[in-house]
Design goal:
The protein has 97 residues and is α+β, with helices and mostly antiparallel strands. The protein has a single domain (3-96), classed as Arc Repressor Mutant, subunit A. Helix content is 63%, strand content 14%. It is built from five helices and three strands, in the order H-H-E-H-H-E-E-H. It has helices spanning 3-16, 19-30, 35-42, 46-58, 78-91, and strands at 33-34, 62-67, 70-75. The protein has a three-stranded antiparallel beta sheet with strand order 1-3-2. Helix 3 crosses helix 4. The longest helix has 14 residues, at 3-16. It is globular and about 45 Å long.
Length: 97
């Protein structure tokens, strides 16, 4: 890896490493979700979820689409989907039992 690649990967991992953002990404690995649905799973406020989604969106990790009054979020980077799946395999084997 060259220095620029190292910086890019480090920035991506830093963005993902917050516990709430990591939990959001684990949820979005399964399906796209609205803020309210994410809030219920993460057990925090809509504002907090929105703030974390904004950070993920600004780094190109998550994108959203509007449908009527709801905004649905999903992971927009296949590498992140693969990384989350691999982390689940390594650190959450009970998910696959």
């Amino acid at each position: 890896m060259n220095d620029e690649d190292v910086k890019d990967v480090a920035a991506l991992l830093k963005t993902m490493s917050h516990p709430i953002r990591l939990k959001i990404l684990c949820l979005l690995q399964e399906k796209e979700m609205a803020v309210g649905d994410i809030r219920e799973e993460v057990k925090t406020t809509n504002a907090n979820v929105s703030q974390h989604l904004s950070i993920l969106r600004n780094h190109g990790i998550v994108c959203s689409r509007k449908d009527a009054n709801f905004i649905y979020n999903r992971i927009d980077d296949e590498r992140v989907l693969e990384l989350i799946a691999r982390m689940r395999d390594l650190f959450c084997p009970e998910d696959h039992a």
